[in-house]
Design goal:
With 659 residues, this protein is of the alpha/beta class. Strands 11-12-13-18-19-20-21-22 form an eight-stranded parallel beta barrel. The termini are far apart.
Length: 659
Amino acid sequence: MKLEDGRKRAAISQISPQIEEGRFAIKRIMGDEVSVSADIFTDGHSLVSANLLFRANDQAKWQETPMNNVGNDRWTGQFKVEKLGVYFYTIQAWVDYFRTWQQELEKKFKAGIHVPSEIEMGLKMIKEALSKKRNAELKRFLTAIENAKHEEERVRLAIDERLTLLMRDCYPNKHWISEMERTLSVIVDPPKARFSAWYEIFPRSFNPTPGKHGTFKDCLALIPEIAQMGFDVLYFPPIHPIGYSKRKGKKNSPEAQKHDPGSPWAIGSHEGGHKAIHPELGTMEDFEKLIKVAREQGIDIAMDIAFQCSLDHPYLKEHPDWFRWRPDGSIQYAENPPKKYEDIVPFCFETEDWENLWKELRSIFLFWIKKGVRIFRVDNPHTKPFPLWEWIIRTIKQEYPEVIFLAEAFTRPKVMYWLAKIGFSQSYTYFTWRHTKRELTDYVKEIALSDIAEYFRPNFWTNTPDILTEQLQRGSRPLFLTRLILAATLSSNYGMYGPAFELIEQDAIPGTEEYLHSEKYQLRHWNKADNKSLAPMIANLNAIRRKHPCLQCTSNLKFYDIDNDQILYYGKFSSNPRDALLILVNLDPINSQSCLIKVPLAELGLPSKGSYKVHELLSDRYFIWEGEMQSITLDSQAPACLFSIQSKIRREIDFEYFL
C-alpha cells in the first residue's frame, strides 16, 4: 500500500456546494457569483491558508482567490462566472508557516520572552520570498525590520497585516498542498434559465377564421400581443406532420372524423417526421421568420420534443428494430392504464441498434438548433433512459451552451430531481396541485429553500393542455388571479397554457382533469378580445416581475407566520435592500380575509420606529405605515397585495399625496 505524503497536513471537508460528491454540476446563470465554503483545518496549533481555484472550460490556467476563515474552521471564497458553459472549481489548503511564525512570535513577545532567533527565522522566509519574486514593498519591510533598533519595533513590523498579505502573494509557503479529491463543476446558463414567463399556444388554432387551420404566418400577428403581456417564451406543442392511422378525434375519441386534425404528439406521416413541419402550418422559411420576428421582441420560440411516433412515421419502415412488436406481428402502442394512446408508439431503447437510435434522437435537437431554436420543452423525459439525456444535454451544451431544456416530468420527486441533476435547465413541478397554505409552504421550502435549489429550477405552471385541476374547474375569476399571482411570485419561472387560462376556460370532462374541448384533438377559436380576459392583470404582473430583480430568483424567499390560514405571507429579497417585496395572497376564492402582519423592518434596513412609505404594486396605490404591526384585509376580487417598502418618511413630505 502506497503511503500518501504525510506532510500534507491540511484537511478539507464538508465542501459546499456540491451534488452527489461532485458527480453533477451545480447551476448558475451568467454573471452570478459562486460562493464556496469548506471546513479547513490541521493538526496542532499551526495556522492554515486556502485558495479557491476556478477556471472556465476553455481555459487551461486556474485562477486563484483567497478563502477567508469565517469561524469554527469554516472557510469561504467566491468567484464570478462570466461566460456561458462549464466552470470548474477546487480548493487548495496548506499549513501557512509564515502566519504560524507571526502568531508564535507575537505570543512569545507578549509573554516577555526575547525573540531574536525567532525574528531571524522570519527574516529567512522573507529573503527566500524575495529570491523567488522581486517586490519593492516587501524589500522595504525586510530592511525596516533589520534596521529597527528595538525589539518591540521589529516585532511590530514582523506581525504587520500588510506584510502577511505580501508574503501570501510572494511566498505563499505552499509546501505540501492538500487538494480536494474531485474537481467540482458549474453549468452556467443564460438568464432565461432562471427567469422566464412562458405562454403556450397551439398555432393551428390562431387562424382569424373559425374552423380554419392556423399557420405560422397567423402567429406573426400574435407576437406583439404576447410581448405586450410580458411573456418572453412562446411555447408550441409539436409542429411536425401528424399521423393518420389510429388518429384521435374530438374529446380523445378513438374514431376520428374526416376533418379532425389529430393530436400533435402523434408525430410523423408520409409528409415527414421529427425534422419536418406540418404542411398546414407553413414552410420551414415561415418558421424561421417567426423565430426571428419573435426574438426581435424579446421572445424565444420554445419547441416541443417528444420522442415517440405515429404509426405512419418514416422511422417505422426505416428502423423497425427501434420499436417493440407483439407476437402477433402488431406494434406495441403507448399505454398508461387505463389510458390508451393507440395513435402513438414508443421507442424501444433496449434495441441492439441503440447507439444509432441515440445519435438520431440527438440529431433532432441539432437540426432545430440550426434553424434558430434555443429552448426545448421535453415531453415525458422520465420515460426514457437517464444516460440518454445526460449524453444529449452534455454534448449539445458543449457546442451550444445557450440552449435551455425544460423537463416535462410529472412523476416521483426523486426522479424529477435526478433529471435536473443530469442536466435539465428547468423542471415542471407539483405546484399545479398545491393549494392550501401548508401545502404551498412545505413544497416551496423543499424545492427552493434547501440544497435542491442548487440544481433544480422549478417552473410553476398554472395549467397545461393536460391539466385543468378540479380547483380551477370549480373556481371563479378570483381563483384564477390567485393561482396566477402565486405562480409568478413564488417562482421566477412560470408558465400557462395561455388562452385557456387567460380566458378562464373551465369546462372539463367530468371526473377528470381533461379539458372538455381539448385543443389536443381539435381546432379552437379563442376570442382574446373577450372582456373576461385576464390579459391586463397578466401584463401588469409581468411588468412588475421585470422591474423588480427580487422576483427574478426563486430561492430568495422567506415565509412569515400570521394568524390566518387562508392568507399566505412571504417576502422576496435581493442584494439591494430597497428591492424587496412583501406579498400577501388570499387563498379563499370566495370570502375576504384579514390578518395582522409584522413588517420585517430590520431586514429592510429601516428603523423600528417612525413612518415609512409603502407602494402596493398591483393597484399602484401608496400608503403611509408606522411601526412593525399592520392590519391587512384582502378582498376576494383583489386577492393579493405586493407591497414595496420604499423609504422612511421625512416630515416635510406632504402626507396627503400618499392617501
